[in-house]
Amino acid sequence: MDFPRNQGYGGLMQVNRKLTLTAHTLLVCAGFFASTVHAADANLEAGRMLFTKDAKPACAICHTLADAGAMGEIGPSLDDLKPDEARVLQALKTGIGQMPAFTSLTEEQRQILAKYVAQVTKAH
Ligand code: HEC
User: Fold this and answer.
1) Model confidence over 62-120: pLDDT tens digits?
2) Model confidence pTM above 0.85
3) Which one of 43, 76, 102, 108 has the largest count of C-beta atoms within 10 Å of its C-beta?
4) Domain ranges within the chain, ordered by starting residue
5) How crowded is the C-beta side of 29, counted as CA atoms within 13 Å?
6) Contact (Cβ atoms closer than 8 angstroms) between residue 111 and residue 89
């Protein structure tokens, strides 16, 4: 870019201040977006872990879900069923048919799982 040499020292300082402000604004925005994306990723990863391992018994034993690499065949394939969040939550809270209730999980864990299943099966 062209430095405004003909404006003297004061002019140069002003330009510098503007540049600094702009750079700062960009950094703040980038940081905000990065942290939002990371939070979403972390929840997806937590949901996947609950599905494959942390929930007892693990959902993956009974259900097929491509995103989790799960190929269980006792319950319906969630890839086909594409349950929305509310449907997953209900099944986890009360159990359904052969599926036990998952009251050992916290409400937050059940929500993370429900969001995860709904999101990776594109139910929402
Ligand atoms: C012991 C095997 C088993 C495990 C473990 C299991 N499920 Fe199920 N699940 C089933 C069966 C069987 C059904 C079908 C029940 C019926 O419709 O009678 C079912 C149904 C569902 C449904 C559909 C509910 C509806 O409204 O039709 C969802 C969603 C679901 N399971 C999610 C999960 C999640 C998430 C986990 C892990 C926390 C899990 N399941 C763990 C066996 C299991």
Assistant:
1) 999 999 999 999 999 999 999 999 999 999 999 999 999 999 999 999 999 999 999 99
2) no
3) 102
4) 9-120
5) 6
6) yes
